[in-house]
Design goal:
Structural class: mainly alpha
Shape: elongated
CATH class of the largest domain: Mainly Alpha
Helix content: 55-70%
Distance between the termini: 54 Å
Radius of gyration: 33 Å
Number of strands: 4
């Protein structure tokens, strides 16, 4: 799921990505050229005491270094812009998809999980894009270029590259394979913490009314401890990576100095070439380390991308009709015809063969015990769910055949629990009609007996 998600949302930024690749290529080539120039100074300048040669090549090295710095800074700039734009578009796509969900899909995912997917999960994938633009693109170029330049300096020591790189890759791969399940579990633990915290904040009055603070504290502590343990297990694996890299790197340097000294003693190699070869070997291993570091991020990003993809690929169960009715001719008559409805996974329907008519201009009260299905009737009328059997009609038209905007435009719904959005009272009152003037706002407040 990770690659399709990247291709889909990075497509608009192909030009910026091309800039990143070109700049990283040029900067890496400049970085690979520097050790060769340094070797030239040692062998042809310092060894021969030629100060003018040292100054000329040193100035050229300075120019190459400035080019490398400029390319790196510009590449990071375009890479960061690409990643931030990618994250913005991905968050927007998730928000738009969730806005299309019916109550069925919202109940399936749960609000805490949707929040985590649109924040933490997107951040993990976005971080992967940032690191790819700044590190991963340069890593293979440096690795291949380093091998070519190392062999060019001295082919007799090239076998050290063939030995050290597979050892480093194999060691880090073993660590990464153990990290993948921990990252997958960590995202689930984050969901759990968010769910428990959200329930406690939303139900704080109930918690206090029944003096359940100690119970809820222990409940949150368990969720928090589960997340901590999972993070610690993943962290223990992560901390093994850098020591492993440094161990292989230091052993490789020792081997280069050891075998290189024999070749210098046998006049098969110069000191400058040994210095350059050692630098190229370090660049090769560091590029492998960067690639491996990226591979460490890929599993977690892949898990997050999978969770994001589940949201984006979920089609709303309440789909607009192919040929919607755009106009209602009546005055607002509501009719339920043999309506049967069962919630997903329920053993029995909550409504069975319900039929009634609510005439226009009349007040119709529906009375019943808690759980009898009164709120469900309103949810079916607003088409938050579709009926299992039968039909719900407004002015003789099945709500499933109506344009959703038309249906919601003729409904006025007062929920059981009021909800205020961030902002002022006026901005909340204008939520239903952004063009309402102050006179209409005061009229609404008087109707709701909330003027004072």
């Amino acid at each position: 799921m990770l690659m399709p998600l990247l291709r889909r949302f990075l497509r608009p930024y192909r030009t910026w990505l091309a800039y990143v690749v070109g700049l990283q290529l040029l900067g890496t080539i400049a970085s690979l050229y520097l050790p060769s120039l340094n070797a030239d100074i040692i062998d042809n300048g310092i060894a021969k005491g030629d100060t003018g040669y040292i100054v000329r090549i040193g100035a050229w090295m300075l120019a190459v270094s400035l080019v490398q710095i400029a390319c790196s800074i510009t590449a990071v700039y375009f890479g960061a812009r690409t990643a931030m734009s990618y994250g913005r578009d991905l968050r927007g796509a998730i928000f738009a998809r969730v806005g299309e969900f019916s109550a069925r899909e919202l109940a399936r995912f749960g609000a805490p999980s949707l929040i985590t997917r649109n924040t933490n999960d997107v951040q993990q994938v976005q971080m992967l894009v940032v690191m790819t633009c700044t590190m991963m693109i340069a890593a293979p170029i440096m690795c291949v270029g380093g091998i070519v330049m190392a062999v060019r300096e001295n082919a007799g020591l090239s076998w050290l590259v063939a030995v050290s790189v597979p050892i480093l890759v194999g060691s880090l791969t073993l660590i990464i394979r153990k990290m993948v399940p921990q990252f997958r579990l960590m995202q689930q633990r984050i969901d759990s913490v968010n769910r428990v915290l959200r329930e406690q904040l939303a139900g704080v009055r109930v918690v206090r009314a029944f003096v359940r603070e100690p119970v809820e504290t222990r409940r949150f502590a368990r969720a928090n401890e589960d997340l901590t343990l999972t993070a610690v297990r993943a962290g223990r694996l992560m901390v093994r990576m850098f020591p492993t890299v440094m161990l292989v790197l230091n052993l490789s340097i020792v081997a280069v100095l050891w075998f290189g000294a024999y070749r210098i003693d046998a006049n098969q190699m110069q000191v400058g070439s040994l210095t350059a070869f050692m630098t190229y070997l370090m660049q090769i291993l560091m590029s492998v380390m960067m690639a491996t570091f990226m591979m460490m991020m890929v599993p977690r990003a892949a898990v997050c991308a999978e969770r994001i993809g589940e949201v984006l690929d979920t089609e709303p169960s309440i789909a607009p009709p192919a040929d919607p009715v755009a106009n209602l001719q009546g005055r607002g008559e509501v009719e339920f015809r043999d309506v049967t409805f069962a919630y997903p996974g329920a053993a029995a329907p909550v409504l069975r063969n319900v039929s009634f008519r609510a005439g226009a201009g009349r007040t119709t009260a529906i009375i019943g015990a808690t759980g009898a299905g009164k709120s469900t009737l309103l949810a079916l009328l607003a088409r938050q769910f579709d009926v299992t059997e039968g039909s719900v009609r407004v002015d003789g038209v099945d709500v499933r055949d109506l344009d959703p905007e038309v249906l919601w435009g003729v409904l006025g719904l007062v929920p059981q629990k009021a909800y205020l959005f961030a902002g002022t009272v006026a901005s909340n009152l204008r939520y239903g009609d952004p063009q309402a003037d102050d006179e209409r706002l005061w009229q609404a407040l008087e109707t709701a007996q909330a003027r004072d």
